[in-house]
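Example is below:
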Amino acid sequence: MLLLKEVPKYECLLESSKRYPELDPSAMEAFLHLMRTSTELTEGFDALHASHNISHGRFIVLMLLNRDPEKPVNPADLADRAIVTRATITGLIDTLERDGLVKREHTLDDRRMMLVRLTAEGRGYFDKILPDYFRCVAAVMGQLTPDERKMLVSLMGKIQQSLPAICAGPLPKSTAA
């Protein structure tokens, strides 16, 4: 993904809006900062995961399985919860199983149906790497007060709720506030 190293100043966006009337400078400025922050967070956490010899995708699968380590999960449910395709989840499970961190097992009532669970080795490994992850999250979010964190969650929730409608159909002519 390519992004700008420096987000354009508001004045530059304002000037561009004269040429492109659809450009809302305030919306674009906020959007670019959101995207830049997202990219930098992704890069930082990818580096953290790499230091533990795990990919972001494998980490997410372990995180999902660790919610209830004793309960096996259907791979299709994992794919839905991780917002990836079933093929992607199969590849992630394959590598985690190869490394002994998860185990596939057949259901008792339908041998065609597979479930996935953390192994004892997987739980131990995940327990070992989680403290670094939690420290990193705390350091990132430590820049905000508890009230600012609540506000951030609320604001991101508003954006997330609007995305399906905005991305599914024709865009409104103007959404400027």
